[in-house]
Design brief:
binds S-[2-(aminosulfonyl)ethyl]-D-cysteine, 8-stranded parallel beta sheet, 8 strands, single chain, binds manganese (II) ion
Length: about 325
């Protein structure tokens, strides 16, 4: 019989050009320094560290229409896509440590290149689905889903270093959890495409357990597909995770955040995870950074089988005198 061990392939993506604030490129090393890999191993997860990706500097990167830093973002994500595809080919669950959320372009693209049709669970205060023509800021970390959804491609203009991207996700295969700061144009897109979403209102109304039950039933209604979990740390309430670029009050509790990962792990369908937008230069001092990074680690441990009731290895036997 086959062992159903969990196995994580870790990719650090120290990248910040999807948004204007310095520091989010330090996320991967901050999460490593908090002991993620050792803790994963200690809970019985096999771990392979693929290191941090190196992104080439782009010197001339003038805005294209509203879109800022497109050449840097496009190039970084092309590299990330290849890296995630390789991790999946090696048989691991991919763990991408960000870096800003524009990195979901490469992570989901590479995951889909490896496994085909997949379901996306997007845990975030924001929808990150502005198009290049609706973005209010020009920051691509607010746009990644628009480049990935097949239904939006007629609304996407040509951008430098973006031509390699092949839209690979269908609107019916996406579920949002934690929304509380959605632009009007994004809301129009979500409603028009009929995207399934559990905003913080639904989290309050249903409770996180029902949200997760409905999320998994919805994604597996027709056929069970591998799940890509794209977790923006700003989904969690800023009282817990202040060290991030776009904090929004009224977020998920630590407990709700962990429940989401525990539930997805037990489906056995979790195939790739992004943990993005941890910025050690934000927050209010060391305590805020520590709380943010430790929460990120806890969320990832939940993805790989850690339970709050405790765990023990299958071959454990009580010592005898
Ligand atoms: N909706 C705004 C803010 S998006 C915030 C991006 S993230 N990745 O969720 O922090 C925009 O498009 O710039
Ligand atoms: Mn065995
Ligand atoms: Mn966000
Ligand atoms: Mn986001």
């Amino acid at each position: 019989h086959r062992h159903h061990h969990l196995s994580a392939g870790i990719i650090g993506a120290p990248f910040s050009k999807g948004q204007p604030r310095d520091g989010v490129d330090r996320g991967p090393d901050a999460i490593r320094a908090a002991g993620l890999l050792l803790k994963l191993q200690q809970q019985g997860c096999a771990v392979k560290d693929y290191g941090n990706l190196e992104f080439e500097d782009v010197f001339e990167d003038a805005p294209v229409g509203r879109v800022k830093r497109a050449r840097a973002v496009g190039g970084a994500n092309q590299r990330l896509s290849e890296a995630v595809r390789a991790v999946k080919r090696d048989g691991h669950t991919s763990v991408m440590l960000g870096g800003d959320h524009s990195l979901a372009i490469g992570s989901i693209h590479g995951h889909a290149a490896a496994v085909g049709e997949l379901g996306v669970v997007w845990v975030d205060a924001h929808a990150d689905i502005n198009t290049p023509l609706t973005t209010p800021t020009g920051n691509i970390h607010g746009q990644p889903m628009s480049y990935l959804l097949r239904e939006l491609q007629s609304k996407i203009p040509v951008l430098p270093n973006f031509s390699w991207i092949k839209a690979c996700v269908s609107a019916k295969d996406v579920v949002y959890i934690g929304l509380r700061d959605v632009d009007p144009e994004e809301h129009f897109i979500l409603k028009t495409l009929g995207v399934k979403m559990f905003s913080m209102s639904q989290v309050d109304q249903l409770g996180v357990a029902k949200v997760m039950e409905e999320t998994c039933d919805y994604l597996s209604a027709k056929v069970k597909k591998p799940i890509h979990l794209s977790y923006d740390i700003d989904a969690i309430d800023p009282s817990v995770t202040p060290a991030t670029g776009t904090p929004v009050v009224g977020g998920l509790t630590y407990r709700e955040g962990v429940y989401i990962t525990e539930h997805l792990c037990q489906t056995g369908l979790l195939s790739a995870v992004d943990l993005v937008e941890v910025n050690p230069l934000r927050g209010h001092g060391e305590d805020g950074v520590t709380s943010t990074v430790d929460t990120a680690v806890a969320l990832l441990l939940g993805c790989f089988g850690r339970l709050r009731e405790g765990n023990h290895s299958s071959n454990y036997r009580l010592p005898e005198p």
